[in-house]
Amino acid sequence: MAKGISKVTFVGGVLDGVVSTIMYPPKKLFSEMGLYYSQKEPKGEVSIIRGDFTKDKYWISYGVDVYLKKNKKPRELGTTYEFLETTVTHRCVVITKKGARCLREALENKTYCSSVHKEK
Length: 120
Prior knowledge:
Elements: E1 4-11, E2 19-24, E3 35-40, E4 45-50, E5 61-69, E6 79-90
Parallel strand pairs: 1-6
Antiparallel strand pairs: 1-2, 3-4, 4-5, 5-6
């Protein structure tokens, strides 16, 4: 992964029109807005995670806006990402034997995280 400082422009989605200078490799982006950055190699995608990404014991769900890196033109400075999709991740609804809600992410289109926690 590249290291250094780069200009990044977002097109579409929640960050439409935002231009930022970020340090690579980035760990947090726009933390004052509650947004976090995650690089997905090798497709050239980045995820902008909205909500509580730390997943403490009280998290319920979080949204992820996926942006796809555009190919650069010769001598073009910076990087441009175009909005691709938004996904939402929900928490498993099962109450464990200890009486607490399961901390894991629910399976896609389900309310539980595994066959052990399957709805009855």
